[in-house]
């Protein structure tokens, strides 16, 4: 029976911007084949989640599927949260709310906020340190929700090819082009600007592991975020692009299993 051994772990996988649970299909298969329990999530208005982007009114609502799963974990079950890219911000919210349930949080080429600064700083840093044409052919889409008018983004096919899946198999790029949905960065959400939201007692108490994809263009920014959170364990995967779950799924799966066995 899946997950029945005492050494098995429950991995919760959280996708990045515009993506969904579908992007983890290789890693899910590999981890489950080794007896681990794995839950890949669709955050609100992502993947096959039924909500439309303008029906998700806050970053908390966007992250609610993750918060619900962590809250529902049985007493004594220790989770390994795994966040990719923008998904790291949702991880931080779950870590602050439920630190006692989380054995470790794994940030994969992800936005990793730090105690004492607002979580939106990671998005601000990316904008400051990236070239003006970073988003290439991505589209901006006007939306309106309870917080007022805003803008969603849909990652373009050329952006995905050059900045996401450059070293991944061609079929994974094709899959991504077919399944990405518009996403909201929630830059004006009050939660993104609250520098007291993440506390040392909760968020800061959870063991953090940062996975660097060595062929990702944002390696410098990753090191900067790591430096802001002393004590973060760092792992590197050579030959991996941003879509590390597609370009190096075996190496990623093995590393996640190792992390799961290390932190109880």
Give a structural overview.
By secondary structure, this protein is an alpha/beta fold. It has one domain: Alpha/Beta hydrolase fold, catalytic domain (Rossmann fold, 3-Layer(aba) Sandwich), CATH 3.40.50.1820. It is 34% helix and 19% strand. The protein has nine helices and nine strands. Strands 2-1-3-4-8-9 form a six-stranded parallel β-sheet, with helices on both faces. It is globular and about 45 Å long. The two termini are 21 Å apart. The relative contact order is 0.17. The N terminus is likely disordered. InterPro entries: AB_hydrolase_1, AB_hydrolase_fold, MES/HNL. One of its GO terms (biological process) is jasmonic acid metabolic process. This is AB hydrolase-1 domain-containing protein. GO terms for molecular function: methyl indole-3-acetate esterase activity; methyl jasmonate esterase activity; methyl salicylate esterase activity. It comes from Oryza punctata.
At a glance:
By secondary structure, the protein is of the alpha/beta class. It has helices at residues 25-33, 59-72, 87-97, 121-129, 157-164, 170-179, 219-228, 244-247, 249-262, and strands spanning 10-14, 37-41, 79-84, 102-108, 139-145, 148-154, 183-184, 208-213, 233-237. The protein has a 6-stranded parallel sheet, with helices on both faces.
Number of domains: 1
CATH superfamily: Alpha/Beta hydrolase fold, catalytic domain
Instruction: Compute the average pLDDT.
Output: 94
Distance between the termini: 21 Å
**What level of helicity do the residues show?**
25-40%
Indicate the CATH topology.
Answer: Rossmann fold
User: What best-fitting shape do the alpha-carbon axes yield?
Assistant: globular
- In CATH, what is the class? Alpha Beta
Organism: Oryza punctata
GO molecular function, one term: methyl jasmonate esterase activity
GO biological process, one term: jasmonic acid metabolic process
Protein name: AB hydrolase-1 domain-containing protein
């Amino acid at each position: 029976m899946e997950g029945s051994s005492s050494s098995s772990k429950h991995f919760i996988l959280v996708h990045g911007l515009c993506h969904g649970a579908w992007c983890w299909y290789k890693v899910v298969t590999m981890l489950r084949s080794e007896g681990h329990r794995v839950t890949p999530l669709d955050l609100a208005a992502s993947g096959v989640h039924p909500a439309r982007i303008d029906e998700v009114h806050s970053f908390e609502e966007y992250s609610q599927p993750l918060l619900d799963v962590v809250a529902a974990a049985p007493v004594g079950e220790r989770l390994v949260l795994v966040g990719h890219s923008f998904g790291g911000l949702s991880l931080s919210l779950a870590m602050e709310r439920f630190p006692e349930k989380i054995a470790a949080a794994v940030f994969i080429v992800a936005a990793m906020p730090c105690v004492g600064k607002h979580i939106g700083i990671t998005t601000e840093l990316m904008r400051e340190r990236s070239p003006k044409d970073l988003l290439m052919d991505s589209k901006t889409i006007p939306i309106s929700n309870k917080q007022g008018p805003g803008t969603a983004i849909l990652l373009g096919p050329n952006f995905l090819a050059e900045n996401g899946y450059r070293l991944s198999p061609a079929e994974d790029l094709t899959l991504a082009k077919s399944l990405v949905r518009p996403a909201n960065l929630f830059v004006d959400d009050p939660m993104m600007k609250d520098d007291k939201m993440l506390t040392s007692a909760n968020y800061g108490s959870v063991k953090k592991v940062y996975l660097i994809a060595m062929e990702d263009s944002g390696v410098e920014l990753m090191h900067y975020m790591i430096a802001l959170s002393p004590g973060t364990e760092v792992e590197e995967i050579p030959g991996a692009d941003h879509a590390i779950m597609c370009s190096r799924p075996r190496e990623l799966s093995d590393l996640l299993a190792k992390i799961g066995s290390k932190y109880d």
